[in-house]
Amino acid sequence: MFGRKKEAPTAQETVDHASSAQAEEARKAAQAGKGAPTPRRKDQEAARRRPLVPNDRKAAREANRAAMREERLKTRAALDTGDERYLPLRDKGPNRRFVRDVIDARWNVGEFVMIAAAVFVVASFIRNLTVQSFILMAFWALIVLVIIDSFRIRMVLRRKLTDKFGAPNQGDVWYGISRALQLRRFRLPKPQVRRGDKVS
User: Fold this and answer.
1) Separation of alpha carbons 148 and 142, rounded Å
2) pLDDT (tens digit, 9 = 90+) per residue, 79-130?
3) Alpha-carbon distances of 56 from 64, 68, 85, rounded to whole Å
4) Is the overall model pTM greater than 0.85, yes or no?
5) Nearest residue to 164 (alpha-carbon basis) of 103, 89, 97
6) Angle at Cα 199 formed by Cα 173 and Cα 115, nearest 5°?
7) What are phi and psi of 127, to 5 degrees?
């Protein structure tokens, strides 16, 4: 009248309870055998994640400077030896190396422009108008020859690149022309072939 008495557990409920207890004990025993529960993937990723701001900023700056210095040294050495691994991006690739070799193996009119310009500056201080006029005409004649030679270089590079690689990449021809305008000893990467060498 004041409430129903709890019914005694049935035989099936007793069996189920015993099975659950045994399963829980087996799970705990397996965990104890491993020493610790398997961490979740989220916890593993969090453990591997580095902080965005390092604790020791001074040490991080020093390490960054050292890495950049080492990278510059490798790049500088590559410019001397032609090592493709550390060359600047604009100089990398078989096309660019082939263009450099083609230009370095020939005499180019453009590499004498800087010398002619220096002579012209010195000659401008000479008060003899005849000498100045002669040097000025020679300088402009050299400029015309440079333009003609640049067109010739363009045709040679396009033909050689097409024969070797199928077609020149964008910028390959201008890369060769701009290199031809530099004095040989100041070119970077440094020439790896001698003048007159056959490049194929």
Assistant:
1) 10
2) 888 888 899 999 999 999 999 999 999 999 999 998 988 888 888 888 888 8
3) 12, 19, 32
4) no
5) 97
6) 60
7) -85, 0
